[in-house]
Write a structure and sequence with these properties.
Helix content: 25-40%
Structural class: alpha+beta
Number of strands: 18
Radius of gyration: 23 Å
Distance between the termini: 25 Å
Number of helices: 17
Strand content: 15-25%
Shape: globular
Largest sheet: 6 strands, antiparallel
Length: about 500
């Protein structure tokens, strides 16, 4: 998911991240892998989009993490840790963030990191990401203190702050922003040793304030043509780690001296956003939505279709999130009961449901089973393949009011509520108002932490009780790495793969 671009582009990158598909515009040459703490060599199954942090994806973003620093680090639970800022305060009205910068920091072009450079890094976002940074203002009482203020309360203040890379004014004015990064991160880019589209080399910055977190003297990123090529490079010692897909998972697991880290990332669900039945009248009836939930054997999906590489789920939210409702599945697999509900709703004849798809989406393995099971309720599934530059726009347009996709499931429930539950959420594609959701969202925005958590739980129970989703599985994503590398845990807030500071 991109850090600073508009929601449609963010969704586009999220889609790629969740599929496990591989693409590349270059191929890495064979070479020696990492040796001891001298060099860490990671495979990229998708080429970098350039060095401009405003278009940097979170997925396979080790190069950006190396070159750039942020005000704070994002912890997995949604909290913040020190980075360029050693301390901070969030105002009681959730509108302002005041950061206190550490002294002596410099960008790789030699200019100092100051409160003014923080302002310069955030200012462009008011236009390029106005949905999250529109109308922001700055107060700079001294060179090491900056307050960023939004016109409205920000329940996702931590995410707004911790994902933005800091850059110098000199860099922002440069015409080579996309080819020559200028940051204050733990590494600096070695352009002479790099070949765009093939190999990117970065050298450790000895003056970085937290250099001990990054033990390798050199970071090398190699673009490989596919997940198969990346796994082959790992097996032969050319690289130290790479993303692997479900198709290459078993081979990776059987490879000597290779470890595989599995992470649950996102939830594959059908999102029944047409609660008012404007495009699909039957979806207005809660009995129909409940029946659609009860016609699927989630355990069978996880064990057979995903070969055990997924967990069955009946909720849209992460188990660690405040919106997750503890208890048993309210809609257990029961085709007979589902048919009874359809008859009670006067919908025993069913209806037609169009599911949008795109090439390379891992969740499409479900389509034959989904088609078969919904047919039990006389619901006819048709698919529409979306292609071209407008594919994401069409997907989220509302033309398909019950899309099935792999999305969200963040540990911070507020993120998933903001994209999939509130009317403005881009995955709530029908954008229909709901007084109950809006009431609880107002509490999340304006209330205390305890009031916010209670409101998140209330929203989780409300959408579960009203069957707004047909959640099916939490699919796993995989990262394979050599025994020469230690990864105690993945601290990636998106659960996509280990991030740079996780490699030891």
């Amino acid at each position: 998911m991109t850090k600073t671009v508009a929601p449609l582009a963010a969704a586009a990158l999220l889609l790629t991240a969740c599929t496990g598909q591989s693409s590349s515009s270059g191929g890495g040459d064979a070479g020696s892998g990492g040796t001891g703490k001298d060099k860490l060599v990671l495979g990229l199954t998708a080429d970098m989009t350039g060095w401009d942090p405003s278009t940097a994806p979170d997925y396979q973003a080790w190069g950006y993490e190396a070159a750039y620093d942020t005000l704070t680090e994002c912890n997995k639970d949604g909290s913040l840790a020190p980075a360029a800022a050693t301390s901070w305060e969030i105002s009681a009205d959730k509108k302002s963030f005041t950061a206190h910068l550490r002294s002596g920091m410099k960008f790789s072009d030699g200019t100092p990191v100051t409160a003014e450079t923080v302002k310069e890094s955030f200012t462009p976002l008011a236009k390029t990401a106005s949905d999250r940074y529109g109308g922001i203002k700055f107060d700079i009482p001294d060179p090491r203190t900056v307050t960023i203020t939004w016109p409205d309360p920000q329940p996702l203040m931590s995410t707004r702050i911790c994902t933005i890379e800091l850059v110098s004014a000199k860099y922002l004015a440069s015409k080579s922003r996309n080819t020559a990064p200028v940051g204050s991160g733990p590494y600096t880019y070695d352009a002479k040793a790099s070949t765009a589209g093939s190999v990117y080399v970065l050298r450790k910055n000895p003056d970085f304030y937290d250099a001990k977190k990054y033990p390798y003297k050199t970071l090398e990123l190699r673009v490989l043509s596919s997940a198969t090529a990346a796994l082959s490079a790992l097996k032969t010692g050319q690289i130290d780690g790479t993303v692997v897909t479900a198709d290459t998972y078993n081979e990776a697991k059987k490879t000597p001296n290779v470890n595989v880290l599995a992470l649950e990332s996102g939830v594959t669900a059908m999102m029944l956003t047409d609660h008012e039945g404007k495009k699909i009248p039957a979806l207005k009836d809660i009995r129909v939505r409940k029946a659609m939930n009860m016609v699927f054997d989630r355990g069978l999906i996880a064990s057979k279709l995903y070969k055990g590489l997924a967990s069955p789920t009946y909720q849209f939210f992460n188990k660690q999130g405040a919106a997750y409702v503890k208890g048993s599945d309210p809609y257990p697999y029961n085709v007979a009961e589902a048919k009874k509900l359809m008859k009670e709703a006067g919908q025993e004849k069913g209806f037609t449901l169009t599911l949008p798809t795109m090439e390379g989406q891992a969740w499409t393995v479900l389509l034959p089973y989904v088609t078969q099971q919904l047919a039990e309720l006389n619901i006819k599934v048709e698919t529409k393949t979306l292609t071209g530059a407008d594919a994401i726009t069409n997907l989220l347009s509302g033309d398909y009011p019950a899309p099935m996709w792999t999305v969200g499931a963040n540990a911070d429930s507020i993120q998933d509520i903001s994209i999939g539950v509130i009317p403005a959420g881009y995955w709530n594609v029908s954008h229909q108002p709901d007084a109950t959701v809006e009431k609880y969202w107002k509490t999340i925005v304006n209330g205390s932490d305890s009031e916010s958590k209670a409101a998140q739980q209330a929203i989780g129970k409300y959408v579960l009780d009203n069957a707004w989703y047909v959640p099916l599985v939490n699919p796993q994503v995989f990262y394979a790495y050599s025994d020469s590398v230690k990864i105690p845990e993945s601290t990636d807030p998106n659960d996509a793969h280990p991030i740079l500071r996780d490699f030891k």
